[in-house]
Design goal:
The chain is 32% helix and 16% strand. The protein is built from nine helices and ten strands. The strands form four sheets. It has a four-stranded mixed β-sheet. A two-stranded antiparallel sheet has the order 2-3. The chain has a two-stranded antiparallel sheet with strand order 4-5.
Length: 285
């Protein structure tokens, strides 16, 4: 397996041609859509996924400093951090507990970043993953603003937007993403999205049978009209506790209605202005 990974690494130039052909819909030619299922109930906060992601993708270090926010020195996803293990201490009167989650790009089925990109740099590749083509990105930052999860970041080195690729190069070589392979508790699971959903639902049923009735899936189904996430999570507290929006906005949905209301408002203001000016002229006469 190690030799196979080295072969994939040595053939990165073949895995990444100068420009990809945009795929209009996730999954083509019978290729199943792939994604992540992250079970936060078994995450131990070891950060092996963070290290594996940086090592495989050759991402620079973000520096080492104490943030004062528990053991979390990474703080957030960024152009150089594509996996982020969040630590949340829940301190109560009776007992205290940890909430841990390895956060990553959600690879949304209806991705606002892909819709907002003016150059076509963001596409769905043949695995149904949201992929940023760095050679086409112009660094405008529209995708950064459009993402409701704060996933994308713009690199100060090249000015381009970067995020998780779901290890596109490893998938092309028949390997699972580095983060999933490095996870010692199988908190991060990779595979066919439909199979992952079935596995996740069974896991929730198992936890409910054990008495953990708080366990639920976030993003496996549509999120209040936002659409499904191909990187979804099993949580046991409110999404906000994991820095996830309860109802993520879709900034480009109903855009025509908003434009229409804006035009109507402008028209009404013009009519009111014309009316007042005509009243002023009649009094002056």
């Amino acid at each position: 397996m190690v030799l196979q990974e080295l072969k994939v690494l040595n053939n990165l130039s073949n895995a990444f041609p100068p420009q990809f052909t945009p795929v209009p819909t996730p999954g083509v030619a019978g290729q199943p859509t792939t994604g992540f299922f992250t079970d936060t109930t078994v995450c131990i906060g070891c950060k092996a996924c963070e290290v594996a992601c940086k090592q495989w993708n050759q991402l620079p270090a973000d520096g080492f400093r104490f943030t004062g926010n528990s053991y979390d020195n990474t703080e957030m996803l960024s152009a150089t951090t594509w996996r982020h293990v969040a630590f949340k201490e829940k301190i109560g009167e009776q007992s205290s507990r940890w909430l841990m989650m390895s956060d990553v790009c959600k690879h949304c089925v209806d991705a606002p970043c892909q819709q907002a990109c003016p150059t076509g740099a963001i596409i769905y590749n043949e695995f149904g993953n949201v992929y940023v083509q760095p050679d086409i990105c112009n660094g405008c930052g529209y995708c950064v603003s459009a993402c409701p999860f704060g996933v994308l970041g713009r690199s100060p080195e090249d000015g381009h937007a970067h995020k998780c690729t779901l290890c596109f190069d490893r998938q092309k070589g028949g390997l699972e993403p580095a983060c999933a392979k490095a996870c010692p508790t199988d908190s991060i699971q990779f595979g066919n999205i439909e199979e992952l959903q079935e596995k996740a639902k069974k896991r929730v049923q198992e936890l409910h049978a054990r008495g953990n009735t708080k366990a639920y899936l976030y993003g496996a189904d549509s999120l209040d009209g936002y659409g499904r996430l191909n990187s979804f999570f099993l949580l046991e507290d409110h999404p906000n506790e994991y820095n996830l929006p309860e109802a993520p906005p879709q900034p480009l949905h109903n855009q025509g209605i908003r434009y229409g209301l804006s035009m109507l408002t402008g028209l009404l203001l013009m009519l009111f202005s014309a009316f007042f000016f005509s009243q002023g002229d009649s009094h002056a006469g």
